[in-house]
Fold these 3 entries.
Entry 1:
Amino acid sequence: MSNSDFYAKNQRNEGNHAAAFGCSVMELRSLMELRGTEAVVKLQEDYGGVEGLCKRLKTSPTEGLAGAQTDLDKRKEIFGKNLIPPKKPKTFLQLVWEALQDVTLIILEIAALISLGLSFYHPPGETGGEYEGEADAGWIEGAAILLSVVCVVLVTAFNDWSKEKQFRGLQSRIEQEQKFQVVRGSQVIQLPVADIVVGDIAQIKYGDLLPADGVLIQGNDLKIDESSLTGESDHVKKSADKDPMLLSGTHVMEGSGRMVVTAVGVNSQTGIIFTLLGAGVEEEEKKEKKENNSKKTKQDGAAAMEMQPLKSAEGGEADEKERKKVSAPKKEKSVLQGKLTKLAVQIGKAGLLMSAITVIILVLYFAIDNFVMQKHPWMPECTPIYIQYFVKFFIIGVTVLVVAVPEGLPLAVTISLAYSVKKMMKDNNLVRHLDACETMGNATAICSDKTGTLTTNRMTAVQLYVGDVHYKEIPDPGVLPPKSLDLLVNAISINSAYTTKILPPDKEGGLPKQVGNKTECGLLGLVLELKRDYQPIRNQIPEEKLYKVYTFNSVRKSMSTVIKLPDGSFRMYSKGASEIVLKKCSHILNEVGEPRVFRPRDKDEMVKKVIEPMACDGLRTICVAYRDFSSNPEPNWDDENNILNDLTAICVVGIEDPVRPEVPDAIQKCQRAGITVRMVTGDNINTARAIAIKCGIIHPGEDFLCIDGKEFNRRIRNEKGEVEQERIDKVWPKLRVLARSSPTDKHTLVKGIIDSTMADQRQVVAVTGDGTNDGPALKKADVGFAMGIAGTDVAKEASDIILTDDNFSSIVKAVMWGRNVYDSISKFLQFQLTVNVVAVIVAFTGACITQDSPLKAVQMLWVNLIMDTFASLALATEPPTESLLKRKPYGRNKPLISSTMTKNILGHGVYQLIIIFTLLFVGEQIFDIDSGRNAPLHSPPSEHYTIIFNTFVMMQLFNEINARKIHGERNVFDGIFRNPIFCSIVFGTFAVQIVIVQFGGKPFSCQPLDLEKWMWCVFLGLGELVWGQVIATIPNSRLRFLRRAGQLTQKDELPEEDVNEENEEIDHAERELRRGQILWFRGLNRIQTQIRVVNAFRSSLYEGLEKPDSRTSIHNFMTHPEFRIEDSTPNIPLIDDTDDDSARRRMKYSSQPSSPNKNNNAIDSGINLTIDTSKSAASSSPASPLHSLETSL
């Protein structure tokens, strides 16, 4: 589309657009759609290059915008703001409507409506009499049930609503955290991303996630990862003359530069995609209600898009809906929630069975009693009364069901997680994925960075080797050779990012503020200590005049800058890790500052005499060097190997980064809690070991490994250079420090520990990272921690939790909270199951023996409310205690209900049943009141049944206090006042109960009780606490059978549960469907095994033919691109096949069986599988196993 078209289009708004700025939104949008040379040409022709564009946007390429508020507002008005409008939250009414979809509630509503209708129906020809009074009250029960349903719905909706609100709050917290460096009024300032406007000059550097589209003004060695937009993983080189287009949501992988912002918010490339997506999601929403409780900003959105394909590939779900649901957070249901949903379904099934039996028994009993025993004829005029009886029976059945289904379980998890997340904010943990919080409780290993996490990340130069002298502290500048000093000061000032500065302290007497790269800050600090200043040198050679910059990256481990000297020759300054830079030095400056030859044996001596002693003091050693080039002929700057060679060393600096004072204590806590802490760092091995000893990661005299990346790779790779799991298994259990490690080493280590099958429990690994290169490891880990201060945006994107204070001790807090979540859920389960068991048995037996449930429908609903909603609130908000860190982590496969809990559930159940049945059958004699049994329809409530109901609730209340401890502790009141929510709920429930009993009357089927009877009820309730102590004395070892009981709930769950780790929990119906597929895969597997046997014979006959390559390890997937997907599918055989070899082959052959397949059609998936195989197999020659597999299919 040519320019003139645009002008024609925009003629109408020409008044305000072009008058204010020389280009309109649409022009800029179309400009940003071009790439490479096209873009350069267009810029030149239409705008007169980048400078022309800046002029039109009324901004200066060096000084930026003036920053006047009116100007900024005007820009926001014309070009839009830099944010993508979030999706509208669900309204309260929508949430109410969703809560009403609950099946049990619907059944109850229908039953209540029938009951209401019948109570208003008077059979013709019947006149008054004693029946009138009862019939009048008939509607009350129906109305009361409806009312309680309304209560339950409102409470659920309110919980959902507050959860949503918290999520949004969290999201906006994350957004405000993200800032970007912008030049305004020649000052570099940090701005929240949302405040960036078109025309801003943004400074970009390694590790940034670009917040808006822009055109590069000047760049050094800039490489961008545009995979989030294009899907191409290769890094794209950007330069002002070849490809200056920078797009929002892409990552800077190397280099630095400045760009002028040309499009923000919805007009940026990511924004455009998002608006399209938004429309797509809306359509999708109408078709199916998907939960989406988070808004994504531009920043988060770009990331979501980037993570989605990865995640879905990992989970093996090529499900379209998943793809479209990009804007929803991916991992919502966690392992724990999966277990709970499963448990709830199992309990629900049992409840359904019980309720059905109850109804059948009641109906049969009634029919037999009336029509067979008493030989009443069925009279047409009596039909409504009979129907009323049947409806009453039906309602009793439904009530049993309502009590049996623990809908409080998912609620408890949500409340507990939401509460924890909110509190973890105070402990400097910003949780991005809810379930990370609970996974952290099971962590068995933490791989931590050194710099900034274990140390303070305030670098100070403390030792210096220059002119053949090793100074143990920074010397007086007079002592140093003047030539060396000049070179040193220049080398440090010029060869560092110009964004790195040392600013005066914020408050008097504080430490100076370090801005930018901390190692460079340490070196600049050295310049200042040598009574020199770096700013004048930088002013003399501004960033534009730097001839060529080789930025620091994890491969080079050094940074070099080339400048043109006045005489036309070139000088390159270099700095980097000392052992790496010294290898490239051929000369060194002597005591008078003249270069002398630096032989290999001098190098060895230097390493021994200077570098190792520095490193053993825990210092990071940096070598500064330079090299001169003649201008004629000009060197080939792209030939890095020759350029970065033949250097002259100036000095070696020892930089100290002190250990954070609270770290040793935190690490000790981790070790006590059964968590191994490993240090993975890019530093020198001696430095790393010294710091590890200071932190307490290693204790002298223990059997442990401290190795560097080279040695690590030598140990874990076979002759072909492939990583082998068996080899990793020999290394990781003892490994404590991995030094000079590359990002891939970190990823390999994390993957190796997670995939390891040595221990009976799968290891749960947490990883901390701050750099862009830590992304893969952070994603691979079970929980990734990113640094909030030092972390790059890429790292934050890949992480689950952001440490807002970059401190290791915050990780320990996260472990504590995670364990607390697990314990809270267990407490709630223990309480809930007791109530369920008792209520169901009471309703069932009561109904069978006395034709009427001792606990009425409305009473059951009240019990359900206290035990579900309130109890989950009370027990899920227990604050964590230090004692949580004194036990080992629970394994992944530990059943939810431990043997102690089973003991408690059964023990308390027995007590409650004894009391209630005693009251039911002999209560009238004990209290000397009328019996409430066998009362006719619609009779007024009896004191007898009120006592039963009241006692039941009292016992639940006191049992709630018992439920606070699940490990069999004696003191159940321990720390009870630290939890105000718990106290208020217990007292609140008690108060409401008094009101219900005294004034509930007909709707609650309650008769007011006098004080004496109340005392008895409370006394029987208090018995729970005494009984709790009795149960605690019974040792678990006595109760062998309980062990089995504790496991029962999960017997069939474990294999499947593991499969579900990566996916969202799969619905039950789907799981049934999956059974068919499992059988299908099992059959396929048998075929494969047979084929393999045949092939084994064949290969021994024809050695020349291709052998099935089954011996290689799972890690080969890393080498075949097609298998990158499996990289993270948990390798759990779905098929009962013990031969691990065949499991491996299966992983190779079929990318699907190893991960749950979401195709409902088993055959379909089988076909997919074949296609997959033929694509990815090494060959499909007639002799290969694949060929025969295809024919057999």
Note: The first strand starts at residue 179 and ends at 184.
Entry 2:
Amino acid sequence: MAGNDWVNSYLEAILDVGKGGGIDAREKEKEKEKASLLLRERGRFSPARYFVEEVISGFDETDLYKTWLRAAAMRSPQERNTRLENMCWRIWNLARKKKEIEGDELLRLSKRRMEIEKGRREATADMSEDLSEGEKGEAAGADLSALGEGSSRAGRMARISSIDAIDAWANQHKDKKLYIVLISIHGLIRGENMELGRDSDTGGQIKYVVELARALGATPGVYRVDLLTRQISAPDVDWSYGEPTEMLTQRDSDDGMGETGESAGAYIIRIPFGPRNKYIPKERLWPYIQEFVDGALNHIVQMSRVLGEQIGDGEPVWPVVIHGHYADAGDSAALLSGALNVPMVLTGHSLGRDKLEQLLRQGRQSREEINSMYKIMRRIEAEELSLDASEIIITSTKQEVEEQWNLYDGFDVVLAKKLRARIKRGVSCFGRYMPRMVVIPPGMEFKHITINDADIDGELDGHDDSSASPNPPAIWTEIMRFFTNPRKPMILALARPDPKKNITTLVKAFGECRPLRELANLTLIMGNRDDIDEMSTTNAVYLTSVLKLIDKHDLYGLVAYPKHHKQSDVPDIYRLAAKTKGVFINPAFIEPFGLTLIEASAHGLPIVATKNGGPVDIHKVLDNGILVDPHDQNAISDALYKLVSDKQLWARCRQNGLKNIHRFSWPEHCKNYLSKVITLKPRHPMWKKTEDSANDSDLDSPNDSLKDIKDISLNLKLSLDGDENTNNGRSKLENVIKKLSDAAASNSNIESQNTNMGSNSKLPILRRRKHIIVIAIDSASKEDLVEIIQNIFEASHLERQNQSVGFVLSTSLTISEVHSILMSGGLLSTDFDAFICTSGSDLYYPDNNADDMLSPQELPFALDLDYHSQIEYRWGGEGLRKTLIRWSALETEKKDDKEEQVVVIDEDRSSSYCFAFKVTNSPVVPPVKELRKSMRIQALRCHVLYSHDGTKLHVIPVLASRSQALRYLYIRWGVELSKMVVFVGESGDSDYEGLLGGVHKTVILKGPFNKPPSSLHQARSYPLQDVVAFDSPNIVQSDGCGTNDIKSALQKFGISKD
């Protein structure tokens, strides 16, 4: 192997043939061909070097790039060529893999388009009323709600149109006392000295949520704002992130806008969940989401009571809205919204489907590899659930609605228009719902910004002679030490070293444009670093490539790249760029919004920004710069040169930005935000709870027990199938209420002498239990289930005898099936405190007044109708039922040359909040994710579940589940979630994962009773390990289901005694 000419030829062939695919592929190929031709003409073209440096490093092929560096450093020609040969095979495999991924994605996208069109047709067919031509015009106008409410036809941002309107709004709502909950889980959040850029999780979203909380806390009508995040007490982060509470001080305390009171203001509340002494990235937080939800639920309930004492006349003050930020917080907010029956709002910030599409376009990783690294499918499902539960989706730009949210099953621009038009006309949508998309750009606080038109020369002269003027900020000195001539206009870029931020293209544009180099300096603020080798691999490789480009173009003295800066230095950096009559640039490939563009404009800097994403809308409002194609190096250099060389254009852009920047202020953002929030239909827990419900001593009062029975008796349903009696129902119900009340009153003297409650007051005793054991075993036969229940009773015999432990049965069975099982095993309904039935759509309590039952068919159970009021949100009702029946009719298989249905409606097991179906052949029916997708495409919001053996299908309200029912018991009866122990099998129904997470304890029973799950459960969107922390101290695995095994598990949780 005398040389490597064949290697160059091989790589050159790849360059010539491997075209197409990816974003802006044609433009990229033109650029490659142009560069290739130029280098060929100069006689120094190296295909190997060109391919590796221009293609491989551009896609962050870290290992391959390192191989190239090692190969280039080899002195031995033989060893170098061996390494290059290895690289060729790897490059060939990479190219082949990219083609395969592109082909698979084209097929998938084609299938998705067909599914969406089919869903639209079916939804439109159900909504059979046609719109007239005039009404179609109205529908286009009504699209403001669906496609960015508040954005005018002229493309302007959502805003209150004048200062007078803002003042009028403030006066109108100043007497309100709203409680708002914001959630942002990942990253490092604190009110001062934010470590932005420390890692990929601590970026612009962190600053946004903190400033939003601070601004809302100062807005008239808002009494308290809680920003819930994760408490982190890790050695590698500052101690302040372990503080449970931090009050956000107002930037301008003399404006008099904020509410005053003991608990008023804005606070960061840190909830402990996940590993206590470890800071972990957002991709690894998913197994601990339910633990956060339980902790957040406890805080909100307690704070609502506190606020009730302060401003609510003794009644709890529930949040007016729960606002999630990003997918993980959206998932949490959806569960909290369902548990509390409070409206939910979501801001996505960046979206999983959009990221997945971008990664697939690069062709470096398959869908499975992407999911393994980023847990992207779990993130996407969280965003889909957020669409199901949210009433409003707040976006920064219209582009986010049309090009990003429109990728989701749960949102469709066309269907959203039709639904909004029907709502506007007061016409039924047949159980279909779509969240409102509202465009509200992020805000900024401008009061602390000072604009100084003085030239920088005076400051620099003052720096030379300290007696002439005060010393400039330290960060100025740190930046200017890089420059040979610091008085030249400064081109400023502020972004972390990430390939999608496109800093390399900016450096090339600057380095290869001689007129621009001669006229300006370039400053790159790329986060903070001590040692490049200690950075994440992606950031380290990218930063290294930036530094190599600086060296390649010999830009020393022209480019500044300081290693450190504080958050408080950022305004000074903007001021320095403005004083030099410089320009701010954001060259990212795609920018969801571009908050740095707002900040720079507020300091008087013209902007050059990517034409992809939010900067388009910002430029429409501010008109203070130039939009460019981020892939076009020449366009970037031309725009920068034009702004720094044309002083009149620079001054005009500066003035336009300063004149219009108020439209991005925090006060205006908050007024627009609240004007949307207060239009939501108020929702909160609907029952009346006594003030003493949280006081154990008062709970022992028999009068309180009597009152609880009277309250709950209004919600009784005493029929076999759980439905209300239709014959003489009113008179019969009144008789039952009277008998229950009389029974409770007659027992009041006995109860006052005995701390153990009598059988006639079973409902309030749920609050007095020290522990609750929840039996939720789906993988056992009915006979084995009875045996396990008896073993659990025996293992907790002493605790059961003194009534310190209560029992809840949680199952997919109906209440009549539960009653049958209890009778077959010789068990009593009064052995349990509650029954969670039909997969969490019904909640019953035992009633041992069996002698008072009105007919032999009636069962000794009371149905909690308050629970139904909690879960009925967005329940599709009859419209959903008809769609499901139509779907089931299409699910057939051939038998003896005949088509037979494999999914049939089960009328006997169905109820008002559960549509039940029989599945005769589970291998041929679609898995949960496919059926859920089909319903979402048609704007039907529901929770789809298969039983463990795959023979039953339940469709229930979207925010109903067995785990949510446990949270309801906490809110309704004060049963602490941390005092619950949930028994499950080795597998379960398709809601199994929800029973394993949270602050409650979980016992996984092993043994031969566990039947294998249906093949339906194998078609998961993500592995169970991605969402369940099996190494959690709250999860114990028992080797068997015998009495001793169960007793041992309970002893580990401190429940059972020897």
Note: The chain has a mean pLDDT of 80.
Entry 3:
Amino acid sequence: TFVTTNREEVTSPKGKGDDNHKESSPFINSNSDREPYYEGKNMALFEEEIDSTPMVASLLNKLANYTNLTQGVREHEEAEDGVRRVAVPQMGTFIGVYLPCMQNILGVILFLRLTWIVGTAGILGSFAIVSMCCICTLLTAISMSAIATNGVVPAGGSYYMISRSLGPEFGGAVGLCLYLGTTFAGSLYILGTIEILLTYIVPTAIVFKENNSEAMHNNMRVYGTCCLVLMALVVFVGVKYVNKLALVFLSCVVLSIMATYAGVIKTLIEPPDFNVCLLGNRSLRNENFETCAKTDTIKNTTIPTELWSLFCSGQYSYNETCDEYFTLNNLTEIRAIPGLLSGVIKDNLWGDYGPAGTVIEKQKQSSVAAQVPSEEKNMNYLFNDITTYFTLLVGIYFPSVTGIMAGSNRSGDLRDAQRSIPIGTILAILTTSFICILQTLYCRSSLPVRFSPALKKNPVIGILAWPSPWVIVIGSFFSCCGAGLQSLTGAPRLLQAIARDGIIPFLQVFGHGKANGEPTWALLLTVGICEIGILIASLDDVAPILSMFFLMCYLFVNLACAVQTLLRTPNWRPRFKFYHWTLSFLGMSLCLSLMFVSSWYYALVAVVIAGCIYKYIEYRGAVKEWGDGIRGLSLNAARYALIRLEEAPPHTKNWRPQVLVLCKLDSDLQVKHPRLLSFTTQLKAGKGLTIVCSVLEGTYMTRGNDAKAGDLKSAMAAERTKGFSHVVVSSNLRDGFSILIQSAGLGGMKHNAVLMAWPAGWKQAQDSSARRNFIETVRETTAAHQALMVAKNIDHFPGNQERLKEGTIDVWWIVHDGGLLMLLPFLLSQHKVWRKCQMRIFTVAQMDDNSIQMKKDLQMFLYHLRLDAVVEVVEMVRLDISAFTYEKTLMMEQRSQMLKQMQLSRTEREREAQLIHDRNTASHSSANDKAVGAAPDRVHMTWTKEKLINERNKQREGMGVKDMFNMKPNQSNVRRMHTAVKLNEVVVKKSHNSQLVLLNMPGPPKNKKGDENYMEFLEVLMEGLDRVLLVRGGGREVITIYS
């Protein structure tokens, strides 16, 4: 349309279309005066192809004006403002990639869980956890950089990259996993926000006052739900406010990190004044007391402290009953953060894991054990509220390193995405990895606690901060709020992108939204799933779920890069050169290992979810061709397999019917016998190749579109026939089918059997083309050593939806030509249509054969072939040729002679027309020769009058000698007819009620003069039978008794 409009303007008079000529012109800096000359004269050679192949200048102009704006927040903001701004991507590496990645990576886990992980796993264990996770994300970032720089990445970010690299099945599965991961990330950040609020900012705001974990979980559920609803309203009302606050939230994160490092430097000079109270070697919860002592002396009077009342049952006296452990051990007060030079690193090298409820004890601290432990008083100590082990900590920590996709998701806003994404993402990962590794060294508190009750409700990382712990508390609170809002903003848009791709039918409703494109329905679903995470009410339980989905996404990013690299497709030309397929495989292996290391049951659930989505898209999803790597991998695998198959012919044990189905199309280009495809489907228990072919008469230039529009594919889909289709245009059907028999297939995947329908109307046809085509097809398949199957009354065969409740499949084994006759019933019985049919095998014995021994031998042969069938031997008695057979043979020959006469008359008419044409040609040539001067060589006529008269006299002379009605039948034909009649009588008697009859198909005569009689013999052989399959072997064994 674009080019056609432009050409119309060019040919129009001057001045017409001047207003919009520049907008519609395909040329850069072109004007209306020069363009007609340029296109009309210089490029006239290509003017007929300009619609399908535009000029290079037009193509470059389209590329130059291409704008890749993210289909997300920016458009929604413009729609809300009512102003459409023409924005040019101006974001650089630092603002567009580095800072967003930093904001997403540094989050709730860093502030709330890293100190506990270090205290529980020790410095070496936590260093291993941080290193594994950071290496995993670094390798993924390298793979992602290669994919992101291999062309333009539109909206959708990582989902777009994976789906276009691995296909719609993998793309949809991983896209939904990424969506679920982003949604549960929102739950994680909201739970982190509420934990900071109720633990450090407003501890008195709890609704459930009971001092147990279940009450705390209920508080998290109540406040988390309220927070989720509030955030969802903010996202629904105006996304622009979320984006404007993004810089504020990022400033909070940066300020918190800087306060932490300032505090760490301060500890070198002056360690923070936060102490921990120990009773013996046990840590006490010091939010319930102020003084770390049993008694206190005021004005020379000894009075009990608050700590005394926690372990003793009455007033202070020497006879009072106290906890035995409290009585036997002394109180010690130590620094919570001893400082870098205190040697505490050596003490915290190794981890201290334990089951839930275990009291936390300081190693190398003396204590006296109590004889009778007091469970009631244990509430005053610090203890593990969950069972801790290394793999659990991996799953909890991994969400801290997610967020590396933030830069690629903003590719439309970047000035140079192919440069900024690799540099910004990898620098952000290296920076955050350095920060996290340093945190493991700085945050080496001897108290592996999360809520820090030993530090008077201060976070462990907070007491490191300078100038006040409130910097960390407020900074982490706003950081979690911002991250939660970003998750609730990004997840619905990701779901909307998946829904609009149309690969998952039931998600299409989520592709719609408000008038400005805001994904309202996707936001509602996101809030619902996010609420599930909040109802879990435990940050430690949600974190592994989040880890699974992100690890699944990262795994497929690495797989996509590795596949594309190994395939070496011409389109794989990333600008980022520092990648290798081994790194991608290492990253993929590390992601898979981390999935099962952190939580094997969550990993299995994630794999099952992704697998179900994959199979659903494969079964019900829309067919998309995105040039993905999986398709390229299939092509490479197919090429390799075909080359291997060419090396040697298949063994008999590997033989299976590779069927070439010869179909005929009607005038509407519909398959004339669709049941032929149904029968092919039922026959494919061998899982072999199927090629459905047809021939159109004419030339390819005139009927090329009909060949492409041939409805073979839809017919195959309707009959559930899996295979390939091919329509050939040829001057006549005979040549077309001959070409298909010779050349169909490729390499080792060539057909070894041909299936066709019996030409039912060959007797009524005006010409003998149907008979000749059929017989020549039989001869060509025999010469090509291919099996042939001919189905009579194919329209009476059962469809794929029918179920034959009973009946038999009868095999009449007359001659052995490879065993295909016995293999076909077995293959049919594997299909549900024929499953309840019993197989019967009949063989014919002559008078001098031992029929009893033949039956025993055949039963033993079938036993070795592992075929279950009923065996029956039929004796053919030698009888004289009946008058009926003699008369039938005579009628056949008379009919053949009559057809020859009819054909002769038609030939004479054609020859007379040719004679008239030659005379006219000769007269014109003679006139031209006289004008020029008589050329020495004359063109001879094809037919002269004398030739025609002589030929006609010969034919009439022959008929005069042998009168048609006084002729005697040929004895060879009489014997053949006798065999056909007698065999037909036996077959009809034994198999008239069977569901299918399989017969050996006799070969055509070597002398082509008997072709017309051959069809009569086959008609007589099949007379009185409904469903018949004539089978002719290909000359090689297809079934064996050996394993």
Note: The chain is about 55% helix and 10% strand.
